[in-house]
Amino acid sequence: MTIHYRYLIVGGGMTADAAVRGLRKVDPQGSIGLISAELYPPYKRPPLSKGLWLGKPWEKLWYRTETLNVRCHLGRTVTALNLSEKSVSDDVGVVYRFDKLLLAIGGTPIRLPFGEDDVLYFRDLSDYLQLRAAVEKKQRIAVIGGGFIGSEIAAALAVNGKQVVILFPEEGISARLFPKDLSQFLNDYYRQKGVEVRPGCSVTGLGRHNSKLVLTVQSSTGSESIEADAVVAGIGIRPNTALAEQAGLPVEDGIVVDEYLNAGHPDVYAAGDVARFYNPSLGAKIRVEHEDNARTMGELAGRNMAGERNLYHHLPYFYSDLFDLGYEAIGRTDARLSTVADWQEPYKKGVVYYLEHQRVRGVLLWNVWGKIEAARALIAQPGPFQPQDLKGRL
User: Fold this and answer.
1) Backbone phi, then psi, for 57, in 5-degree steps?
2) Which class in CATH covers the domain with range 324-390?
3) What percent of the chain has pLDDT over 90?
4) What is the pLDDT of residue 178?
5) Which superfamily is assigned to 2-108+239-305 in CATH?
6) Superfamily for domain range 111-233
7) What integer pLDDT is reported at residue 116 of this predicted model?
8) Which residue ranges in the chain fall short of pLDDT 50?
9) Which residue, 11, 44, 186, 392, has fewest beta-carbon neighbours within 10 Å?
10) How does DSSP classify residue 261?
């Protein structure tokens, strides 16, 4: 069976929906096909680890992409891309021909080398539903990973009355992102909220004892066992580049795109978590796994597929909610950089600047709102900046 679309999108996430909307703004009638390995049409991913655990309505999850005159092929995995024939093939043998193609294929969770059937890797709606069903019957949940997803899930489960233990090899929660003192504050803050925080711990094995899961944990004090009713892991993703590699498209920690989001071929584009792009403000190639990038990049890719020529120079931001704390961050928020903190109230409200060679490379807005555009403009400035120049800046 062969189907032809003017525009074909491989992937069914937030980027794919934004691309459809960008396409429709330029070309209201051209045929659009969307192929997704998920069983659900495009939905909003952030509520899976945030709002849905706080009672946000299920109905608010959906983008309603299917109302935009697009045909969704759900539960299908694309297995091959043929550039000479401008076609892709899926896992049930259907061939889809295209005039323009968007690869919005995201990433796959990094997996542990053990506990294959007992660890839930939190990434998509199916994972949310599985975890939600599990915690209805289970009380003690182990969360592996103290980064973006791990910190959100641990907070969400604790708010829902679960006994949570969070384990990670770093010294503090989100230690790769936040300065050491702020990361250490989060350790104590989570403990005050009833979470058992275990920094400096690497999970090296997982087994069963009666009805319990038993994690083998290695730390500076030796090896020990920790029991849990369920285990969730959020330890990062790897971009899905195999399809692009097989087709000979440029790959480097993601699918490399130019400033117009072309992926090494004039009729092939990439966007979202999988795309690696050059950002002029940072003067570097980056790959971003957050909503703002997914939506903004997806829409621009759709517009360009439909004939426009827009440069993608957007510097994305991201955000999170951790119990009563919230933050927005933009640029290179890397704890290895030099940081300058400007607290209105220590660890409760303030701004952290990340500097390299006297330029601001990133900004963390900690319970400070409405300053993203100003932070974005600051990062674009050449400097030089001294610490005193940043006090009261935002």
Assistant:
1) -60, 140
2) alpha beta
3) 97
4) 98
5) FAD/NAD(P)-binding domain (3.50.50.60)
6) FAD/NAD(P)-binding domain (3.50.50.60)
7) 87
8) none
9) 392
10) -
